[in-house]
């Protein structure tokens, strides 16, 4: 029997494009659907990945941080940065036409509460539902706030209409609200000031890494090898 997997926690919000960019290197590929079960690093490195749906608005408020898009020069940089990173990581990411309305007016509260319910009741579908919500907002410029939008994402991820409707009816329950709040507070306790945040638990040490570009450093901490956004073990199957 080999060594036990090291635990990684990925705190994310589908309102954060950088969270999606951090998410994909660990997840099943959606860009070669005929292969169905195509894995990247979570099946190459000896890790146990825990997905933690989090509310980015709560983290920004708790930390006193300001979204980079509110600063003109940073906003221009982010626009170009996200586009280039999407190309590099092979993630079909495109900014919404009305970026400020989507991010600052509509937000992601209901979507993140829905993902919280999915994690509680159907954790095996959390990865797929998260990706479908990211695809809606950051690839197809579609809504993620209305009930029908969330149901459509859940159904496309493989959930039945009945299952999805049942979970959606629970997004305003105290259990779900408290769970999302607790997860967001946990990220804050680790020192989060934005998302994504990856927390690596290694022996007696805990490391908090911010951003989607910390993969090489994470590999170093794990004693593993970073082989680019699409490692050879994956490329060989394409």
UniProtKB/TrEMBL annotation:
The organism's place on the tree of life at top rank: Eukaryota
InterPro entries recorded: DSBA-like_thioredoxin_dom, GST_Kappa/NadH, GSTK, HCCAis_GSTk, Thioredoxin-like_sf
Pfam families, per database record: DSBA
Gene Ontology biological process terms, A to Z: glutathione metabolic process
Protein name: Glutathione S-transferase kappa
Active site (UniProt): 16
Gene Ontology CC entries for this record: mitochondrion; peroxisome
Keyword terms: Transferase
CDD domains referenced in this protein's UniProt entry, alphabetically: DsbA_GSTK (cd03021)
One example GO MF annotation: glutathione peroxidase activity
């Amino acid at each position: 029997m080999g060594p036990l997997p090291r635990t990684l926690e990925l705190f994310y919000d589908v309102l954060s494009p950088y969270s999606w960019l951090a998410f994909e290197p660990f997840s099943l590929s959606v860009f070669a659907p005929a292969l169905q079960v195509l894995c990247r690093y979570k099946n190459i490195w000896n890790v146990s990945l825990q997905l933690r749906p989090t509310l980015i608005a709560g983290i920004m408020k708790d930390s006193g941080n300001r979204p980079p898009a509110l600063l003109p020069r940073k906003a221009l940089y982010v626009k170009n940065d996200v586009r280039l990173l999407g190309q590099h990581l092979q993630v079909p990411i495109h900014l919404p036409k009305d970026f400020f309305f989507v991010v600052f007016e509509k937000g992601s509260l209901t979507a993140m509460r829905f993902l919280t319910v999915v994690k509680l009741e159907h954790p095996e579908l959390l990865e797929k539902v998260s990706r479908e919500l990211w695809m809606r907002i950051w690839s197809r410029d579609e809504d993620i706030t209305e009930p029908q939008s969330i149901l459509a994402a859940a159904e496309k991820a493989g959930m039945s209409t009945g299952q999805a409707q049942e979970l959606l009816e629970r997004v305003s329950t105290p259990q779900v609200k408290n769970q999302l709040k607790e997860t967001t507070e946990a990220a804050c306790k680790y020192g989060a000031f934005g998302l994504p945040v990856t927390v690596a638990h290694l022996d007696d040490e805990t490391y908090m890494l911010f951003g989607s570009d910390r993969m090489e450093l994470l590999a170093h901490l794990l004693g593993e090898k970073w082989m680019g956004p699409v490692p050879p073990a994956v490329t060989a199957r394409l």
